[in-house]
Amino acid sequence: MHVDDRLQHIAFIMDGNGRWAKMRGEKREYGHREGSETFKRVISYCGDIGIKVVTVYAFSTENWKRPKTEVNSIMKLLNTYLSNCEKELMEKGVRFRMIGDKSALSPALIKKIERIEKATEDNPLLLNFALNYGGRAEIVAAVNKLITEGKTITEQDISNALYTFDCPEPDLIVRTGGDLRISNFLIWQAAYSELYFTDTLWPDMSEADIDAAVHEFYSRERRYGGVIKVSPKN
């Protein structure tokens, strides 16, 4: 499979790690470890089929409410990934960029993130890694930035002030785990995204599952608020 220019940007809501672990009698942390391996496979496959931008919902602003042991486990996994990912990202041609509020992260973690961002900035496949991210908070931050610049705010101004200012809006948003909502993810950018929901839990997400989502995307008619033109019958 290889995509064309109609599908440039896929976003993933990576849901179901905890339930996947529970079904196997394991702690939620085990699910997050397996989910991190799935994340690597998915990014690699998206690059292989020609996707230009991938955005993943890694950790939301609301996820801090989870048990401290689980949050610590997620942050430890992230720290390990950032310590070891640069070579793989370079080999796969992936540009890493965090989107979200860095202020709640440790200085050491911020330093690692910024080092990876700098090292990979010229790579062709953009990976937006949504960490401490909330869609509403993103819009508030964008509006406040524009207010300080003294602008009369337009829709394009807001788009240009978001974390994702320099990439196309997501054509397709895939949510694993069976829930039918987008959970404060890319709520400005998703205005005309196609939504695809699957019961597959994130650690089980495979190349075949991605192909199914892509096939579904191509079966839809994107009208952007317009109508489909029908040729008159003879």
List the helices and strands and how they pair.
Elements: E1 9-13, H1 17-23, H2 28-48, E2 53-60, H3 68-84, H4 86-92, E3 94-99, H5 107-119, E4 125-133, H6 135-148, H7 155-161, E5 172-175, E6 194-197, H8 207-218
Parallel strand pairs: 1-2, 1-5, 2-4, 3-4, 5-6
Helix pairs in contact: 1-2, 2-3, 6-7
Which structural traits does this protein have?
six-stranded parallel β-sheet; alpha/beta; 15% strand; 234 residues; 8 helices; globular
> Could you give the count of β-strands?
6
With strands numbered from the N-terminus, the spatial order across the biggest sheet is 3-4-2-1-5-6
Share in β-strands = 15-25%
Order of helices and strands: EHHEHHEHEHHEEH
Low-confidence stretches: none
Rg over C-alpha atoms, rounded to the nearest angstrom: 18 Å
Largest sheet: 6 strands, parallel
Strand-pairing-aware structural class = alpha/beta
**Quick check: average pLDDT?**
94
- The separation of the N and C termini measures 38 Å
- Overall outline: globular
Characterization of this structure:
The chain has 234 residues and is α/β, with parallel strands linked by helices. It has helices spanning 17-23, 28-48, 68-84, 86-92, 107-119, 135-148, 155-161, 207-218; strands at residues 9-13, 53-60, 94-99, 125-133, 172-175, 194-197. Strands 3-4-2-1-5-6 form a 6-stranded parallel beta sheet, sandwiched between helices. α2 packs parallel to α3. It starts with 8 loop residues before the first strand and ends in a 16-residue tail after the last helix. The model has no long low-confidence stretch (mean pLDDT 94).
